[in-house]
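Summary for the steering committee. One of the milestones for this cycle was to obtain a three-dimensional model of the protein with zinc ion bound, which we needed before selecting residues for the alanine scan. The sequence and ligand used are listed below.
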Amino acid sequence: MKRILKIAALVVLLVVVAVAGLFAVTFMGRQSLADGYEINRVRVVADGFSGMAIIRLDDGRVALVDAGDDPEGAAVLAELQRRQLGPEAVAAVLLTHGHPDHLGAIARFPRAEVMALEAEVPLVEGRAGARGPLPRLFPVSPTGVKVTRVLRDGDVVTVGGVPIRVYAVPGHTGGSAAYYVDGALLVGDSADIASDGSLQGAPWIFSDSQAENRASLVRLERRLVADGAAVKAIVPAHSGAGEGAALTSFARTNRERP
Ligand SMILES: [Zn+2]
């Protein structure tokens, strides 16, 4: 009996070490998330583990890209207050994807239109589960979030006078989106910036398909060039921001791969 307990303890220990190792490999070597980072009309608000972006609109309101991890929305409400705005000033929440650490504070913004790509709506609303190796272990249940405006790949959505370009980048999730606004490319979890400034694709453990994610990023680079969208900064949700050139290098390297 004692021996069985010892073996069980050893197995548990090995599993814990393996999971910790996976997390370390996934998160180490990234640029750390920078609360207050600004590029043109975009400002990053760090909400613990997740970052979201506040976009200053021409009509005095703001739009958000993602809504963080915190259901209370403390960090984003504090940032609104700093601007002498209340929660009703949030005109829209544009979701990069439907993982729960991006939906947190949506209920705090009663006037916000909630936007996501059509393919992502079931995940956002909790009618379908995520398919990544780790997310698939979690049960599917309604999130209480309702997408009020369905986006399509290639849309240019104008919110409060500011045009925002919508790009489908499937891979991290099936309906993942990237948004381009005023020199900033908001990529959610589809990419991270490493400590050396290079761009890396989505971590496999949280992603539906790493190969599809890589292909989407290569395609995204080509489409941004074709659209004349000059990317000054790439803004991920779980790492610090990087220069636009990081996506160009990533695309060159990954295109050349057989
Ligand atoms: Zn995610």
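Key point for the committee: The pocket of zinc ion is lined by residues 97, 99, 172, 189, 206 (CB under 6 Å).
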